Amino acid sequence: MTKLVFVCWGNICRSPMAERVAEKLIDEQGLDVEVSSFGISDEERGNPIDLRAVRVLDDAGYRTDAHEARQVTSADLRDADLVIAVEPFQVARLRGLAPGVPVELLNDYNPEKKGEPLDDPWYGGPAGFESTLSDIEAAMPGILEAVTAEWHPATPA
């Protein structure tokens, strides 16, 4: 089974949102991919998905239950076939934590926002979460294609 990992800062907004979008598409397409999410920081460890993210995900038909924020480890990364981070500094940090593991930027798979960080909605209101979800949905087809095909990075390592 192929393993796909999403990583953001605290694992309460962006990475669990991406995980839920990926799960739904994986299920709909019958793909053999296991997906998980983590945070770089441990400050939110054990917390559920942010309630604003829950509302946006629920309104869009995605699963919102059974999440506890987790901090990523080098073992989590080494077990992955593809790791998707949401900000460029996170890509660099994760590549340092697990050299040789393919780590890519989420928006490198979003045709409209290649090279840009995924906006962090935590500091704002519902519109920020809706925009973040929209960017995740735009990037997801390319991410799933990359992780299920002979892998070619969106950007050179």
Automatic annotation (TrEMBL):
SMART domains: LMWPc. Its EC number is 3.1.3.48. The keyword Hydrolase applies. The keyword tRNA processing does not apply. It is an enzyme of class 3 (hydrolase). Coiled coil: none annotated. Keywords: Hydrolase, Protein phosphatase. InterPro entries: LMW_PTPase, Ptyr_pPase, Ptyr_pPase_sf, Tyr_phospatase_low_mol_wt. One of its GO terms (molecular function) is protein tyrosine phosphatase activity. Residues 2-146 form the Phosphotyrosine protein phosphatase I domain. Belongs to the low molecular weight phosphotyrosine protein phosphatase family. This is protein-tyrosine-phosphatase. It comes from Tessaracoccus lacteus.
